[in-house]
Amino acid sequence: MPGWQEFVIDPLTGLVTAIAGGVGGYAIAIILVTLAIRLLLLPLTMKGMRAQRKMQTVQPKLQAVKAQARGNKQREQQMTMELYKKEGVNPLAGCLPMLLQMPVWLAMYGALLTLGNCVIPGSDAISVGRTAANAVADCAANGGNILLDENFLWFNLALPDATFDLPFVADTVPFAYISVMAILSGAVFFLQTYMTPLPSTAGSTGFAASMQSAMKFMPVFFMFIGWMFFSAFLLYWVWTGLIQVVQQFFFSGLGKLEDRLSPGTVRFLTSLGAGRFAGVTPSGTIELDADEFEIDEPSTEKPKTKKRRRRRRRKRGRRS
Fold it and tell me: Which pLDDT tens digit goes with each residue over 21-48?
């Protein structure tokens, strides 16, 4: 994308570097920048999460619409659209938080990728393979260094998180290790997905239904690629996921996770503030009135004008 590097990635890279110089490390800088970005996006995130919650509250009515349509897909679609209009619901508005994350995700990845390049004095920065377990050693062998080459907790930001090597195969099989950060990223995204009250496929558009199907596999995908990614990005991944979970807890509630928990646990989490700022309340089981939606059905009676014409023809035939 023209200008993406110059106007987005480079300024973000400079911001992370400046903060790292002030706080004494890139790990803390990544945490602070991520928190600042999430706070800036909070108003839009709140709007999207409340839309998700509102969509969840009309699910009983959607089920009633489906039953009332009795298999007539055209009638069901028309009634569903009227229900959305009446309730002020946009079925795609709940996807806003996920769509907002994509450009931020790409920008942070680009900035961290830039910081993860090998810097050799007197030459341009070169990429040494951000999934390589020996990236730091290869860079040092060429007389350079990687800015992200620092230890934080149990991992190095510039390298994949090989927390535990698998015995007997660690020296012969690539990525033969246990990555705690990759597992955490998959677990956090799984929790985030279950707390997202996306609408059911009933009455959903093709795009919304496709997103729901794709999100079922996203936690596994995140964990798989996180196994090979450098730890700086995994740190951003896990931290931004935790922030999202906290936001969802207060602004959209427990989502589908509510069905997996005991009633006592749900009451306890609700008392802690789950869904406190959602802006809507669950509607419960709703019965639709038979005449709530007036749908014009095709008339089975033929126009009177045609009947009159046929009568005239019969009369003429008799006279002749």
Answer: 999 899 999 999 999 988 888 887 777 7
Q: Is residue 302 part of a domain?
A: no
The residues, any chain, with a CB within 8 Å of residue 289's CB and separated by 6 or more, are none
HSE-CB of 154 using CA atoms within 13 angstroms? 8
**42/135 Cα distance (integer angstroms):** 36
DSSP 256: G
Q: Domain containing 274: what range?
A: 4-279
Residue 263 lies in a domain: yes
> Cα–Cα distance between 45 and 49 in angstroms, integer?
6
Q: Does a structural domain hold residue 284?
A: no
Query: 118 φ, ψ to 5°?
Result: -80, 120
Contact 236, 12 (CB under 8 A): no
In total, the chain counts a number of residues equal to 320
Cα–Cα nearest to 123, from 139, 112, 107, 110: 139
> Can you state the angle between helices 218-226 and 231-251, rounded to 10 degrees?
150
Q: What's the pLDDT band for 283 if we cut at 50, 70, 90? A: very low
Displacement of CA 292 from its chain's centroid (Å): 34
Place of tokens 């951000």: 130
Structural contact between residues 275 and 254, judged by C-beta atoms closer than 8 angstroms:
yes
Cα(first)–Cα(last) distance of the chain, in Å? 83
Torsion angle of C-alpha atoms 271, 272, 278, 282, degrees rounded to 10: -30
CB 34 within 8 A of CB 108: yes
pLDDT tens sequence across 286-301: 444 444 544 444 444 4
Give me 133's structure tokens.
């377990």
Q: How many structural domains compose the chain?
A: 1
Q: Return the structure tokens found at 222.
A: 């995140």
Asked whether residue 22 is domain-assigned, the answer is: yes
Mapping DSSP to helix (H, G, I), strand (E, B) and coil, where does residue 247 land? helix
The SS3 of residue 288 is coil
